[in-house]
Amino acid sequence: MLIRELTEADVEDADRLRRVAFGAVSGPSLRPGRRGLAAELDGRTAGVLTIKEFHQFYGGSTVPMGGVGGVAVDPYARGRGVGGALLDAALRDMREHGQPLSALYATVPAVYRSRGWERAGVLEWLDFPLDRMPAADRIPSRPLVEGDLQGMHACYNDVASTVNGLIDRSAPTFDLADVLKLDVVSVVPGHDGEVRGYLAAERGPDGLKVFDLVGRDVVTQLGLLRELGSWAGVLDRASVRVTDPAVTGLLTNQAISFTVTTSAWLLRVVDLPAAVAARGWPAAEWVKPAAVDLDVVDERAPWHAGRQRLVVEDGRVWVEPGGSGAVRLHARALGPWFSGMQDSHALRRAGLLDGDAALLDRLVGAPGVPRLADYF
Questions:
Q1: According to the CATH classification, is domain 134-252 in 3.40.630.30?
Q2: Do the beta carbons of residue 101 and residue 116 sit within 8 Å?
Q3: What is the pLDDT of residue 366?
Q4: pLDDT digits (tens, 9 = 90+) for 299-348
Q5: Please, what is the end-to-end C-alpha distance for the chain in angstroms?
Q6: Which positions fall inside the N-acetyltransferase domain (predicted)?
Q7: Do residues 338 and 279 lie in contact, with contact meaning Cβ atoms separated by under 8 Å?
Q8: Are the C-beta atoms of residues 55 and 65 closer than 8 Å to each other?
Q9: Residues 69, 171 contacting (CB under 8 angstroms)
Q10: Structurally, what CATH architecture does the domain formed by 2-99 represent?
Q11: What pTM value is reported for the model?
């Protein structure tokens, strides 16, 4: 079996494999911000995957992340180790490209768990009755124009930087102008070109899908919710993607029971020292100098396996080789710990951690459920 870089000459074969695996493709396998790997068996392309270039917020800082998707194996080649070989190669590729984290949405979780990915957050859509929006004053808003794109992006990132897991939507993977194709995009203008908030939605045969409802302050958020509620005369409800959990969790009036559609995403720490160095650690300012000695069990990423010491000092956190290995951490434990999805007690009960890891819990804290608001 040969694993190699996906090239433009492979796109037709790659798109075919993805179409067979998933029923459809949303776009070509290669495009700006995306690269790929191909597996060859008997001289023909038998499997593919793609890796998107993302930056994911943790602790207020962005960490480079490889978004793995489009993992497809030709039916004749299944059961011959093609998928596993592609994933092993992807780990090496992401490390070489400076992506110490990787995330994916898993249709077959066991395959990815065997390679060290583990559930670390959610993407959620809430089904909102439009007649239960909170009362609010009308605020000045207008349709988005091209000149608002940078201000809209800055508004999104101001909020996203406070929610662990959200992507910064930077180029080249994201094209800000794509939002202009949506049916409904309202912005709340501020001073000097600033955007205080915005609402982005698509009207389809099944109703209204709200991709983002983002505001810098409560007045803006409530005003945008009022605008969303104006659809109540036309529709009973809207489907709202959770971008800012403050909007959907604290400002809306869901009853005791409501409908939510959840897509779980899995995270993999590809390079522990690099991931820790890139992450923000707000709680480290309040932790006295301390260290925890780790024994990382990760046969797929030998570059960070074995004894590693995580050190906290003067508000900084880093990982260096050495230590006693007192705390054993399986590769699958690293993702949910890093994101804050699971604490050491849950990881211990799942058989993914042994030893006293209280320092790891103190560092991550309890910042809320890690979230993505983009599917890939």
A1: yes
A2: no
A3: 78
A4: 999 999 999 999 999 999 999 999 999 999 999 999 999 999 999 999 99
A5: 27
A6: 1-140
A7: yes
A8: yes
A9: no
A10: 3-Layer(aba) Sandwich (3.40)
A11: 0.95
Structure token digits, residue 94? 């992401």
Q: Do domains 2-99 and 134-252 have the same CATH topology?
A: yes
Decide if 186 contacts 141 (C-beta within 8 A).
yes
SS3 of the chain: the string is CEEEECCHHHHHHHHHHHHHHHCCCCCCCCECCEEEEEEEECCEEEEEEEEEEEEEEECCEEEEEEEEEEEEECHHHCCCCHHHHHHHHHHHHHHHCCCCEEEECCCCHHHHHCCCCEEEEEEEEEEEEHHHCCCCCCCCCEECCHHHHHHHHHHHHHHHCCCCCCECCCCCCCCHHHHHHCCEEEEEECCCCCEEEEEEEEEECCEEEEEEEEECCHHHHHHHHHHHHHHHHCCCEEEEECCCHHHHHHCCCCCCCCCEEEEEEEEEECCHHHHHHHCCCHHHHHCCCEEEEEEEECCCCCCCCEEEEEEEECCEEEEEECCCCCEEEEHHHHHHHHHCCCCHHHHHHCCCEECCCHHHHHHHCCCCCCECCCCC
Q: Among 3.40.630.10, 3.90.226.10, 2.60.40.290, 3.30.1050.10, name the CATH number for the domain at 269-364.
A: 3.30.1050.10
Nearest to 259, CA basis, from 239, 243, 242:
239
List pLDDT tens digits, range 284-302: 999 999 999 999 999 999 9
Q: Which two tokens stand for residue 241?
A: 């993607």
Q: How far apart are CA 292 and CA 278, in angstroms?
A: 19
Structure tokens at 181: 């194709």
Mean pLDDT within 54-77 = 96
Q: Which two tokens stand for residue 333?
A: 């434990």
